[in-house]
Amino acid sequence: MESVSIISEHSSDIAKRWVQKSELADIYDKVMAERRLSRDDGLRLFQSNDLLALGFLANLVRERFHGEKTYWVYNQHINYSNVCVNGCRFCAFSRRQGEEGGFVLTVEKVVNKVRERLDEPIREIHVVGGCHPDLPFSYYLDLVREIKKIRPEAVVKAFTAVEVAHLAQNEGVTTSEVLQALGEAGVEALPGGGAEVFSNRVRQLLCPEKLNSDGWLQVAKEAHLMGMRSNATLLYGHLETAAERVDHMLALREAQDETGGFITFIPLAFQTANTGISGVEPRTGFTDLKTIAVSRLLLDNFAHIKAYWIMLGVKMAQIALHFGADDLDGTVMEERIGHMAGAQSAEALTPDELQGLIRAAGRQPVERDTFFKQVVRSTKSPSIPLYERGKILK
Ligand code: V47
Ligand code: SF4
Fold first, then answer.
1. pLDDT given for residue 163 in this prediction
2. Which domains, from first to last, does the chain contain?
3. Which of 19, 111, 122, 151 is most buried, most CB within 10 Å of its CB?
4. Half-sphere exposure (CA, 13 Å, Cβ side) for 385?
């Protein structure tokens, strides 16, 4: 064991000297001094092809925050409907109302999906769908209340800012009123979807019907101000430029300075198949790792960066754990958004598989809930987490 640590110390010295001599040396000095990186730094990081230097820098910050700890969550994804009025060109999941392949699950069907897995110690239920033209607001409230009734120990993380704004518009009420009602029904956090990339240029090309970037940020901030936490995403690897990725991250950093309510940042790797832009140049491994690493470096006020294995593929997600990411997301169970767009990953991973991937990357797996509180299970009764008995490790 001793020789391993001597070797890794030695190799980290070599890496440090390498970075100090590289084109990123001044950024290394800033990272070491814990100084905030600028827009120009972000652009230079994306321009650099010194991937190992970039990874070294991002890893410094990742380990400063979390050491070897790498998080995963026992979760279940449920898509209640794919019927959507927005028709985003990058989306293979949605259908217009009446179009073949469109679906809406009844509340009972959703509840059955939850009930089928009651013997598993699930900590988070992630619920999202399209912007349905006329599902009544009572459907959403019933959905959450019924899930919470049969699975009270799980956090319901449901409805993106885009869905919240759509519901407000349909009901003729404010987004705050929608958030309030959802919160009372049992929603504790919002997933980070719908942010796409904040560039008006790209949104005009890909999702002109969708809630705009100011609207998305506004709903997230409103949720935070009423005590609800949320995630933030960036959809990358399509028509956006590196500068638009940087600007997206900086807008999130500014919002986080205001509210502190974002839990985690999730770069979503674009899956091309069956979309309206399936001809775009496919993402490369460099784009994936650079986007993870730059986000870790620019988003100094975000505690967590997620390597979402569904979109990245498990191998790239595992490597990302050394390029700034500290979280793999979770078991997921059933995934449609990425898979309808051709994602080649599995639709579910077991806790053993997730922990095995993390250990094989030389990291320490930590089971978490939505808010990154550690879940500790009793070895005698693995299905009853100590978390439920109030023993939460900070
Ligand atoms: O908003 C749509 C994106 C998002 C494609 O908060 C696509 O913990 C890739 O936000 N290729 C939904 N991405 C997924 C999402 C998410 C996933 C996991 C965890 C969390 C969280 C949030 O998926 C959409 C959109 O940005 N998306 N089409 C596509 N072809
Ligand atoms: Fe609708 Fe969301 Fe798909 Fe856009 S990404 S079409 S809002 S389901």
1. 98
2. 66-392 (3.20.20.70)
3. 19
4. 22
Rounded to an integer, what is the distance from CA 86 to the centroid of its chain? Answer: 21
On whether the CB atoms of residues 326 and 307 are closer than 8 A, the answer is no
DSSP 262: E
Tell whether pTM > 0.90. Answer: yes
Position with higher pLDDT, 14 vs 151 = 151
Tokens 């929608």 correspond to what residue? 178
Q: In ligand 2, which atom is closest to the CA atom of 85? A: 1
Q: Which residues contact 316 (CB under 8 A, 6 or more apart)?
A: 269, 285, 288, 289, 307
Distance from Cα 226 to the centre of ligand 1, integer Å: 24
pLDDT tens for each residue of 93-105:
999 999 999 999 9
Atom of ligand 1 nearest to the CA of 275: 30
CA-based angle 300:61:297, to the nearest 5? 45
Q: Quote the ligand 2 centre to 281 CA distance (angstroms).
A: 21
